[in-house]
Amino acid sequence: MVKKRGLLAAVGVIGIFWALLYLPNLRSTPNWYGDETLTLQVGLELTKGHLQNRAVFCSFFSPAYNYQPGYAFVAGLASRLTGGDILGGRLFAVVIGLAVSLTGFFFLRRRYGSPTAFTYAFISLGYVQAIIHYRWIYPHSAVGLALIGSITMLFRNPSLANDLKAGLFLTVGAFSNLLGIHAVLASFACRLFKPKSWLPIIVPSEPVEPAEAVTAPVSDAEEAPPGTPLS
User: Can you say whether the dihedral through the CA atoms of 108, 114, 115, 121 is positive or negative?
Assistant: First the structure.
């Protein structure tokens, strides 16, 4: 019971630290930028079922939209909770940042103890570039979650359960950004001499890496100042 209370208190401290850094002025700081507003608009259109315009094969060099549709779709759903405003999408983004911090915290606490775990949690949330990028609707953050989550599973002994969990984390990255394929390949290399682990790690993310990115009829935008309509 004492250990459980201590763990809850630790999570609470991290949560307060996260809330203080990420929730104030979330809608307007930092300024909106092109990829962010594009992702949000694509996500909103996807949630409405508007798939008819400009479906492109997703690649790093796509002239239209080079992110996977999964992240955009969830960002669109989150945005609809705030009336289609960018605030909902950014709330989804900062929750991913918190998930990255807590995932690493639980793993490091179990393996190396609370001081190391706390150090990681506060650095991962308090690093200046992390604050900026986690506050944006930025699919790369989900790839970070995929990496951290898969690492926590791959450090454990190979088993069907651990490998499947790693595969599910990797799927988060695969649904978000093409960089997710790097996480999949690195995880596969970690189990290179464990053939039984190959399928559980790779198969969950395989159907979406690469995928057909069905985009909405929008154009690339320059950084938009706060208050600019998205439609």
Answer: positive
User: Is residue 222 within 8 Å of 185, Cβ to Cβ?
Assistant: no
Global pTM reads 0.81
Question: What is the rounded distance in angstroms from the CA atom of residue 93 to the CA atom of residue 30?
Answer: 13
- Helical segments of the chain, H only: 2-22, 34-47, 69-80, 86-112, 114-126, 128-135, 140-154, 160-174, 180-190, 195-202
Total domains in the chain come to 1
**Binning pLDDT at 50, 70 and 90, where does residue 226 land?**
very low
Q: Is residue 176 part of a domain?
A: yes
Alpha-carbon distance 141 to 148, whole Å? 11
Tokens (6 digits) for 182: 């790097």
| End-to-end CA separation in angstroms for the chain | 52
Cβ(85)–Cβ(79) below 8 Å: yes
The reply to whether 142 falls in a domain is: yes
